[in-house]
Each structure stands twice: as C-alpha cells, then as structure tokens.
Design a protein that fits this description.
Strand order of the largest sheet: 10-14-15-13-12-11
CATH class of the largest domain: Alpha Beta
Number of domains: 4
CATH topology of the largest domain: Heat Shock Protein 90
Number of helices: 17
Shape: globular
CATH superfamily of the largest domain: Histidine kinase-like ATPase, C-terminal domain
CATH architecture of the largest domain: 2-Layer Sandwich
C-alpha cells in the first residue's frame, strides 16, 4: 500500500507536535507545578508515536516511545521533572526532527544512538548539591550529525496547495464579514420598518449562505483521502496482536473540510487502536463466547444536515460501566457517593478524563490512559461532540459529531449579568426552564432529573466570577451540555436565542485565557465572547 501520498501531512503534523513538545518542556522547566502541562507534553509524545507507527517509521517510534516512558514516570510521580529530564526530552526532539528531515529528503532515516532508549529508561536524578558547592559547567559536547541535521530548516514547498488554501481561508473570512454585515442590515431594516429593505436583506442572506457553501465545497476533500492510513494501521495492529480483524469503511465519498480532515487523523487512529487492542478478543475467546473467530471493526461516515457523523464500532468484549466507576474511585477521580449517581452512559465517558485507563498492561499500542483524552480534546477543539455506547460482550460504538465549518457557526447567546456569551449549538444538548421545586440537594450539590438521569447544576455566573442571578418568578433558564463525560445543566440569567455568528480568534492576552474560543459581532454591533465550555468547566 502506497503511503507516500500521506508523507507531507505526516511531516506537517509531526513538526507541530515537536514544536509543542519543545515549548512545553521549556515551560515545565521554569514552572514544574504548571497544572496540565505534563498531560499536554505526554499527549504530544503519544500522538507522535502513533502517527509514526501508522507510517511505519520505526526509528521515530523508538525515540517517541522512550520519551513517553520517561514522561510516564513524571506523570505517575515516580520522577521529578528537572533539568536532566528536560535535556533528555529536548535531545529526543532533535533526534526526531533530524529523522523527519531524512524522511522529507527521501534519505535513509538515521537511527537514534543505541544508548538513547537505555539512558531514558535508566535515568535517575543526580543527588542534590550543597548550597556552598558550585556546579562545574557541563563539558561542551561535540555536535553530532543528527543534531546538525536537526538545525537545518526544511526546504519550503514550492507547490501551490498552501497558497490555494490560504486564499480559500481569506474567502471564508470575507464571507463571514458579509454575514455579520447582513445581520446589521437586518437590524436596520427592522428599526426603519421597511419591508422592502427587510426582504432585500433576507434575499442577500440566502445568497451569502449559498456563497459560503460553495467556498466550503472547494475546500472539501473526500474522507477516502485518509482511509488507507486507517486500513494499514488496523491491519498492522491486528497482525502484531495475533487477532483476526475484518475492517469495514463506509461513506468514503463524504466530503470534509481539509482542515477538519487533517485534525481527524489522530483521534480516529486512537479509537481504532483501542478497538483492536482493548475491544477485540482473541479468536479462542470469541469462539468460546459463541462469536465468529474474526472480529469486525467498522468506520462509518455520514452527513446529517449541517453536521458530519463519524462512528467507529466493534463487536468485541465491550466495556463494563461499573468497572469504569471502580477504577475512577481508585484513582481519586470520583468519590464513592458520586459514583452511585453515575448512569452507565456517564460511566463510559469517564474514559475521557486525562490519565484514566483500565488497561491491564502498557504496550506501544495503548494502555497509558491518554488515547480517549486526546480524542475528546481534539473533537471539542473542532466544535464537535463525542458519544460512547457499549454493551459488555456485544461491543462498543464511538460516535463523533462535527460541524461542517467552524468559521461561521450557529450559537446560543446567553446573558450573565452585564455580560453576553455565545455557546455553539453543537455543544448544547437542550434548553430547559427549571422550576425551583424540581431542584434536589444531594450533599453540597444541586441536581435535577432529566430523562431519568440525575444531572448536576452549575451557575455560569459563578464560573465567570459574576454576581449570581436573581429569579423572582422561581424559573431558572438553563442549557444542558457535557463536561468531563457527563451531562450538566448550566444556569444563566437569560437565554437570548440562536444567532448565526462569524467567529474571529482572539489575540494576546485573551487567547491565553481558559474558556475563550473567540469573539463575534451581533447584528446591533455588540461583541460577544464564544465560550469553550469544555475548557471553562
């Protein structure tokens, strides 16, 4: 199977991970207690290893796997992050960068030094020095060929693909600005009471929507463009694990935005690797359970109005919700009291918590509690949602629902005190007007019943640090979303309805604030903040 067509995509994604790893290593060395930094660094090494394994670049896998092992010791508390750890990780970044240069130049990939993996595996921090003792300066090591090659900047691609993509992005931005101005004209038409003007603006809005759809179609690529990578990955994993797998793909001709397609490769690879490694039984075990010896893994893509639905299903052993709850309690993620209120669906979503894993052993395939965390983070970044369904002994299904575009979105605008915020409708399960009589108090938490499930309540005002709202009529407006794998009701002061918004990214320092996904302008010129609920909560 020819994988050369995916080389450019692999190189681009790998270099992004390398840059992120380098930045996180430096940041961690300066602030070792930075929350979440270790998980972010760990995910980068794990994702890089998975992509390299799919492309069969074994030398890159060796280095990334060694880096991952070292970070596992840091994450589990067995090793403190200090200068020696940072030096080894940065050395690994240089080695992988040199290998990527070899791959890009179609040269034989230079293998890593034979002792690199051993140095990481056997690393122990040096004994602390006495304050009066001054550490001698480290000897200057001769520059290795690998390090020299790592410093070489890769040649720029002289092709036109990147230029075309940037031009299309510019067209989408212009279309978004026109949508914003259309909303302003609609407000003017209503204030002026001019029906002809209102009709003309409405017709212009339809043309703008058609223009946006046509621009998006030009950016679309068939899902088939990345299918071969998954087939190769599943086949390789099945052979390595000695399992018989039948892999089926439907919906190859469904078109997705090129940017979305690129960012889906790694999450889908995580899910497929987990399906083969964890979900599927050995042939003998399947035969004993009355199943065909060959297991089936299905990847299905479909379009539902303005959303793309991708599902990965298997007929393996499935997942046991109670086992997930027990593991979460052992790890301190949940208290036993909280575990009692979790529904089976909520229990399955616990697998999306960083560091959560029920794997019995760690391999170079999976089992480090990082896969589903990476999947959920990537899907939420795209404005989508993840759902997990499983039945012990029957199998599991992972469903991803994604918007067609993340530039122009439909959002629910809410009022919290003097602040207006917008939540993508893809993150809103439903809106509810709740009577105070329907609220139950369990321990220190307020909850309500929704479809037979106990759902906790949170105040968005409290999350944003705003004064709590007052509801003299006893009715609380709220919307239901998902946070950390379970449904939660978010109480606001007012629900202001849905709006079509053109999202613009924030610059510094707002871009560094948690929970902010960008900004948009309403028809009356007022600016609203697009809230990233997964990050905010």
């Amino acid at each position: 199977m020819d994988m050369t067509q995916y080389k450019a995509l692999f190189l681009s994604e790998s270099r992004e991970y390398l840059r992120a790893i380098s930045e996180q290593v430096v940041a961690l060395e300066q602030s070792p207690s930075e929350p979440g930094a270790v998980d972010t660094l760990f995910r980068g090494a794990h994702s890089l290893k998975g992509m390299a394994a799919s492309m069969e670049y074994g030398e890159v896998v060796v280095v990334a796997h060694s880096m991952e092992d070292l970070m596992a010791r840091v994450r589990d508390g067995g090793l403190k992050f200090e200068a020696g750890v940072a030096d080894l990780l940065l050395e690994g970044v240089d080695l992988i960068d040199a290998m990527l240069n070899d791959v890009e130049a179609d040269r034989p990939v230079t293998p890593p030094p034979g002792d690199y993996a051993q140095r990481l595996a056997g690393y122990t921090p040096p004994p602390p020095r006495k304050k009066a003792e001054k550490a001698p300066p480290p000897p200057a090591a001769p520059a290795s060929p690998e390090a020299e090659k790592a410093k070489e900047a890769p040649a720029l691609d002289a092709g036109t693909v990147r230029v075309k993509t940037e031009l299309l992005d510019h067209l989408i931005n212009l279309t978004g600005e026109l949508v914003t101005n259309k909303n302003r004209l609609l407000n003017v038409a209503r204030e002026a009471g001019s029906q002809p003007l209102n009709d003309a603006v409405s017709e212009t809005g339809k043309l703008l929507r058609a223009l946006h759809d046509e621009v998006m179609k030009v950016r679309l690529m068939p899902f088939e463009a990345i299918c071969d990578r998954f087939q190769r990955s599943v086949r390789s994993l099945a052979k390595k694990s000695g399992k018989e797998i039948q892999f089926e793909i439907t919906g190859r001709d469904i078109g997705l935005d090129r940017g979305t397609l690129e960012q889906l490769v790694d999450p889908l690879n995580h899910i497929l690797r987990n399906a083969v490694d964890h979900g599927m039984e050995e042939s003998a075990e399947r035969a004993a359970a009355g199943k065909p010896e060959k297991g089936v893994v299905r990847l299905c893509v479909s379009r539902d109005r303005d959303r793309i639905v991708i599902s990965v299903s298997d007929d393996g052993r499935g997942m046991e919700p109670q086992r997930m709850i027990d593991a979460a309690i052992r790890k301190g993620v949940l208290t036993p009291e909280e575990g009692e209120f979790l529904s089976p669906r909520q229990a399955l979503m616990l697998s999306c918590i960083p560091g959560f894993s029920t794997a019995r052993e760690v391999t170079d395939v999976s089992g480090r509690g990082v896969g589903m965390d990476a999947v959920n983070a990537a899907i939420q970044k795209l404005g989508g949602t993840l759902e997990i369904e499983s039945e012990p002994g029957v199998g599991s299904t992972f469903t991803l629902k994604l918007p067609m575009t993340i530039a122009i979105i439909h959002a629910l605008v809410v009022q919290c005190g003097a602040v207006k915020g917008a939540v993508p409708v893809t993150a809103v399960l439903r809106t509810v007007e709740l009577s105070r009589r329907q609220i139950e108090t369990v321990g220190k938490r307020q909850m309500f019943q929704l479809d037979g499930e106990t759902v906790p309540l949170l105040s968005l005002n409290r999350v944003l640090g705003l004064p709590l709202g007052r509801f003299p009529n006893g009715i609380l407006p709220l919307f239901v979303t998902e946070a950390k794998g379970r449904r939660v009701g978010i109480v606001v002061d007012r629900l202001l309805g849905q709006h079509e918004l053109f999202v613009k990214p924030f610059g510094r320092p707002l871009s560094r604030m948690a929970g902010l996904a960008g900004g948009a302008t309403l028809g009356d010129g007022e600016i609203v903040t697009i809230l990233d609920l997964a990050d905010l909560l």
